[in-house]
Amino acid sequence: GGQTLGVKRSGGSGAGKVPSGNSVRSKMDAKDMGGASGFSVLTYNILAKSLGSNTIPWVMTVEKAFEEKFAKSVAGLNLGFKSFSEMAISILKPTYLKHFHKNPASGNTNLMRTFWAKPVDSPSDIPTLLKGLSYEAKDTFSYSSSADNAGPKITAKTLRGVLYDALPPEIADETFAQLMGLENEVFSWNARGPRVIEKITGTSLLGCKPSIITLLEYDVHHTIVDYDRDNVTEG
To answer: For a Cys staple, 112 with which of 25, 38, 106, 139, CB 3.0–4.6 Å?
Structure first.
């Protein structure tokens, strides 16, 4: 038939770009519709938070200049890695997967994932919705190994704490600042949302404005964002 179906992956996660997402597009013209007016349908995967955050080790991104600086800074230090990407996979990923990615004992898996990137300077920095977590020291906490809080305690460190263990303090500070700067300015839904909405409601993906748009992995129902960039926030 006359239906065209294609898959397009939007590119890049750098500043000013929409972090990678998937869109499936389908257009039918008047001939396909038996003379009726044509329409277009766009399905777009905005990516769930587990892939739409710069704090998740296997999708972490840093600027090229920082990556080069990082490699020079760790050269000759015998840290077990020679680049930022090697550190992310060999050091950060195992800790994140073990304590944060799927931790049902915490009572809130999604909140536990975001807690990974939070600075913890005092007991008040531990979210009250996370069950059984206790403050131990800066960026260090303990949690119960069972949902009923009766199991043995396990000690873990957040992202900043793991960076301080793996790197000299100055490099750890710069690395954490780099990751969180991109998280807040590029990856967070407050920054990414308006760019995604602008892209999918425009003409760049289909060559025309979609008649119907469906979104996959939409997990920002309660997030208030200035989508139109007019200083008016919307849900």
So the answer is: 106
CA distance 192 to 184: 9
pTM of this prediction? Answer: 0.77
Q: How many residues does the chain have?
A: 235
DSSP of 185-217: IIISHHHHHHHHHHHHTSSTTTSS--SEEEEES
Helical ranges in the chain per DSSP H? 64-74, 84-87, 93-96, 109-115, 159-166, 169-182, 189-200
pLDDT in tens, 22-56: 665 555 554 554 555 678 899 988 876 666 789 99
The residue behind tokens 């990137």 is 117
**Structure tokens belonging to residue 25:** 């597009």
